[in-house]
Amino acid sequence: MMLQIRNLRASVAGKEILRGLSLNVSAGEVHAIMGPNGSGKSTLANVLVGRAAYDVTGGEVLYEGKDLLAMSPEQRAVEGVFLAFQYPVEIPGVGNMYFLRTALNMLRKQRGLEELDALDFLTLAKERMKLVEMDPSFMSRSVNAGFSGGEKKRNEILQMAVLEPKLAILDETDSGLDIDALRVVASGVNALRSKDRALVVITHYQRLLDYIVPDFVHVIANGRIVRSGDKHLALELEQYGYADVEQDAAGGAPSVVGAMP
Amino acid sequence: MSDAMSAPASAWLQRLSRPESSRNRHSPVWLKEFRHAALQWVSERGFPTARDEAWKYTRVGPLLNVAFEPAEPDPSRRLSSAVIDQLAGNLGGIRLVFVNGHFAPDCSSLKKLPPGTKVESLASALAEEEGGGSLEAHLSRPFAEQTHAFTALNAACAEDGAFVRIPANTMIEHPIHLVFLSDAGAAITAGPLVSHPRSLLLAGAGSRATIVETYVGLPGEISLTNAVTELVLDEGAAIEHYKVQDEVETAFHIALLDVRQERDTRFTTHSVALGSSLARHEVTVRLQGPGAETTLNGLYMPRNRQHLDNPTTIDHIAPECTSRELYKGVVDGRGRGVFDGRVIVRPWAMKTDSSQTNKNLLLSESAQANTRPQLEIFADDVKCAHGAAVGQLDEEAVFYLRSRGIPEPAARDLLTYAFIGEMLELIRLAPLRSHVEKLVASRLQAGGVAVAAAA
């Protein structure tokens, strides 16, 4: 098991958002996490990468058997955890290419691998840029500065392609994308699917799951997973909305639809 | 002594002015009189206090508490060129080195210069000049026109400095590097030393040159450098000037760069302030001929308990002149950075185009930055813009970099370097830029780990 989340509780500014969330993810699997606004989807993503504003008040997260929550954000990256941010930050003055190379080399160094020289890096970056159909001119610009929403999301996937994480979490990568950008981003992500890599795709809409077909779909409501199933659960939600699951969350145990692992 | 000066300040001044007689032995009469008048001025008016607007942020008290002695030349102390290279960088051109304000020919290097060009010590220029030459008018000017106690003190006590005279329509290909080294450990009477370098740079009509002033020091006793540099650009001259202040962190540094620009001249200066416990580098530019352009850039990086003050005055006297000013401060520890930028547009300076920007980055809770833009506009039909900001590193950006595996200290460095990078790119003189890059990188939190990766 790559990731084991057990009864996780977390709050932001004193307000409890995650209320006993449990989830298991194995290598090679793609999990979709869906849910209405405010259900705790993004909180889960932020807790997993260690953002300081989120307080974990209970439960545990084991990543490859290790206590993920005890690690600093940079250690988590070294261990192979990656978050494609919902709102990637703009960093004027730091070149995109320079940033990516520094990140890759710092990861490699901390993993005891040799650093890539400028030429080797360029070769790698060029190859990975094709995955997200990114124009090379983006590499000489400052990180995300003045990028459109779609360009920022592509840049996130490019970083993922270059840094090659074991566990990638995509936080509403589809939000704000038109259908063409969505298709490009999704095909980039699909190219990175592998038996050694797990993906957790967080989304509000079923639309993204037409392109990135998940092995499992989980519905989160009021800070807990209330339903789990296969890709058909996503279609069901598309049809009937989140009203039912929110009722479930208020009441009894999670119900199960379709095949379970 | 008048009532204006307290007893300790008066004693302080007495000590510095003691060797007046020995210094004056070979000086022309005008210089003796001038020195005497300047000293008189200081005794009567005293040192700046909190009541002086121009010294609002800088207290000279700590400096007046040190029993400084005037620095004498020390021929027994031999400094190698390698030491100078290491401290000041080797820019591969002409280099004049001054140790404690006295010319040190051994570690200076003079390349072949175009005919009529003079690059020498001011003391020799004065010795060569016979009977009331042009030096008198120049040397008395900054004192006469904009005096505060330290300019006057420089006028009273200065013995040497650089003298550069570039004839009309002459281009100096290599940079002229003026290195001022504080070496208070070397003194025979080892104690706190003061030096008063006085430099005069005259750029003839249509001439071109790059001039670098570097102020560095060797660890030892406390030193005070009280420098005045005067630069005159005749019609159509273009001068690129740099000033790197990287004295040891126990030093005091007070300096004035006084610039006059005639018609259609182009002047750029870049100030890099890194060293000293207390430093004040003042730049004054008078745009007195139409069509003159001036650019003032500055980077200051106080840390620990350093206090780095950057007062500037751009005086638009003639019409159709352009001024651009960009100063950036990075303040760490309990350091304090000051930018005090005055722009004056005189009534007849129509079509003035001026812009001023000051940005400060505070890296610690107790870091402090003061920024004071002052625009005094007395003319119509002018374009004047200014902006000032004080901020901290974007924590979202720090987190973003960390989430990609860049350790926190390196992430902070990288973002700090991104803030500074703009100033380094403006340094066009490549060997100086790489020297400054190294100095800056070595001051960052992680010792420039992230920055080194960029190279």
Keywords:
heterodimer; A: 261 residues; alpha/beta; Rossmann fold; 7-stranded mixed beta sheet; 4-stranded antiparallel beta sheet; 9 helices; B: 455 residues; 2 domains; 11-stranded mixed beta sheet; 10-stranded mixed beta sheet; 12 helices; globular
What does this protein look like?
- The complex is a heterodimer of chains A (261) and B (455).
- Chain A is α/β, with parallel strands linked by helices and 261 residues long.
- Chain A has helices at 41-49, 73-79, 96-110, 118-131, 149-163, 179-191, 207-211, 231-240, 243-250; strands at residues 3-12, 15-25, 30-34, 54-63, 66-67, 81-84, 91-95, 142-143, 167-171, 198-203, 216-221, 224-229, 255-256.
- Helix content of chain A is 37%, strand content 28%.
- In chain A, the strands form three sheets. Chain A has a seven-stranded mixed beta sheet, with helices on both faces.
- In chain A, strand 4 and strand 5 (66-67) form a beta hairpin.
- The termini of chain A are close together.
- Chain B has 455 residues and is an alpha/beta fold.
- Chain B is built from twelve helices and 21 strands.
- Chain B has helices at 7-17, 20-24, 29-45, 61-64, 81-88, 122-128, 135-145, 149-157, 395-403, 408-425, 430-443, 449-454, and strands at 69-70, 94-99, 102-103, 118-121, 162-166, 176-182, 193-195, 198-203, 208-217, 223-233, 238-246, 252-261, 266-273, 278-287, 293-300, 307-316, 322-331, 336-345, 353-362, 368-377, 383-392.
- In chain B, strands 1, 4, 5, 7, 8, 10, 12, 14, 16, 18 and 20 form an eleven-stranded mixed beta sheet that branches. In chain B, strands 3-2-6-9-11-13-15-17-19-21 form a ten-stranded mixed beta sheet, with helices on one face.
- In chain B, helix 3 (29-45) runs antiparallel to helix 8 (149-157), helix 7 (135-145) runs antiparallel to helix 8 and helix 9 (395-403) packs across helix 10 (408-425).
- Chain B is globular.
- Chain B starts with 6 loop residues before the first helix and ends with a helix.
- The A-B interface holds A 49-52, 72-74, 76-78, 82-83, 85, 88-89, 91-94, 98-99, 101-103, 105-107, 110, 142, 159, 163 and B 394, 396-397, 399-408, 410-411, 414-415, 418-419, 421-422, 450, 453-454.
